[in-house]
Amino acid sequence: MTLSPKQSGQNKLQHSSWLFLAILGALMAFTSLSTDIYLPAMPQMRRDLQGDVELTITGFLVGFAVAQLIWGPISDRIGRRIPLFIGMILFIVGSIGCALSQNIEQIVFWRVFQALGACTGPMLARAIIRDLYARTKAAQMLSTLTIIMAIAPIVGPLLGGQIIRISSWHSIFWLLTVIGALMFFSLFLLPETHPAEKRARTSVFGAFGSYRKLLSNRQFMRYTLCIAFFYVSAYAFIAGSPFVYITYYGVGTQYYGALFAINLLGVIGLSFANRSLVKKIDLDILLRIATVIAMMAMIVLALLVWFKIGGIYSIVITVFIFFSMNAMIAASATAAALDGVPELAGSASALIGSLQYGSGIISSILLARLSDGTPWTMAWIMAVFTIASAAMALTSAGKGKR
């Protein structure tokens, strides 16, 4: 069932539905694009900046996780569009700062600043979907957005790898500046989906009390932690794969993007399938199936790496299966979580996003502190947290709502 936003917004959606989805998909892709596009440049950045370049990912994720918790209640109070415009301006300024950075301290600072704006994209895209659609339809729409947003992590590393061949890593951040500017102007085409009569009546600061309600909601937290644990594993690969593929296995930087992009082909394929499956199968059942498959793939990965079987091919194949499940896990768990708290969609989406992407902080810290110079650290981190994700899905007690 579709919820009714303001009439003007509703008409805009009807006349520009594919453009509307394309903009929301691009907003949801901001996190992946902001990180994945410079992955091939990390070895060069480490040499140029003389520091632990993994901290650029950690800094971004810290800013991303914390800022969402602020923007969520604000969007419930004043609507979705204004925070999006402000966020895009912050992203542009942060990208310029990164491009001009000359040492590791500067770029980490500007990556945090960049994240303060970038976080509004995926967080408010999810909230907008919940403003307009109920449980099953929301999952279907999120699957559609996943197809669109998957373009970024496919194109990002490929584009970044080519830029590094002809220019420096600074050019990558100048490109992000241009993309941010284009996104800013595209926001004028979006309607306001959170009308005044549905907004939180408390003050912005009072609205932060909604997090206490959400954290005490066991069912909401099971779905949210299912996503968060899965993304600890995903970010372990994102942060660890440049070393594993480029340094350990000797893959050329221009080919790294292609190996990374293979995983997103699985995401796209399963996203197409999930759009139909959510109409026929309960979200909780889909979620359990997907997390168990991902868990089995990561257990196999850990065993193959430990016993040194299959080399790089064992990683490529098992990680492909793992990432393919992302479409079902993210869409199903997010839709089910938000369905239980429709009156707190902005805050709930912020908390989901904060834990989802903030979980990458755990990955980058574990990799930085425990790496043994082989793929083993990445493999066991992915296995442990995918098992935790499956445990959350298997213990959820969905209402069976359609």
Give an overview in words.
One of its GO terms (molecular function) is xenobiotic transmembrane transporter activity. Pfam families: MFS_1. The chain is 81% helix and 0% strand. The protein has 20 helices and no strands. Helix 2 crosses helix 8, helix 2 packs across helix 9 and helix 8 packs antiparallel against helix 9. It is globular.
Number of domain modules: 1
End-to-end CA span: 10 Å
* Structural class by sheet pairing and helices: mainly alpha
CATH topology: Growth Hormone, Chain: A
Form type: globular
Sequence stretches where pLDDT stays below 50 over 5 or more residues: 1-16
CATH class: Mainly Alpha
Number of distinct helices: 20
CATH architecture: Up-down Bundle
User: How do the helices and strands follow one another from N- to C-terminus?
Assistant: HHHHHHHHHHHHHHHHHHHH
CATH superfamily: MFS general substrate transporter like domains
Count of DSSP strands: 0
Helix content: over 70%
Largest sheet: none
Beta-strand residue fraction: under 5%
Radius of gyration: 20 Å
Mean pLDDT: 84
Summarize the structure.
This protein is mostly helical and 402 residues long. The protein is built from 20 helices and no strands.
Topology record:
Elements: H1 7-15, H2 17-28, H3 30-36, H4 42-49, H5 54-78, H6 81-100, H7 104-118, H8 120-132, H9 135-149, H10 151-166, H11 169-186, H12 204-207, H13 210-215, H14 218-248, H15 253-280, H16 283-306, H17 311-324, H18 326-339, H19 345-370, H20 376-395
Overview features:
402 residues; mainly alpha; Growth Hormone, Chain: A; 81% helix
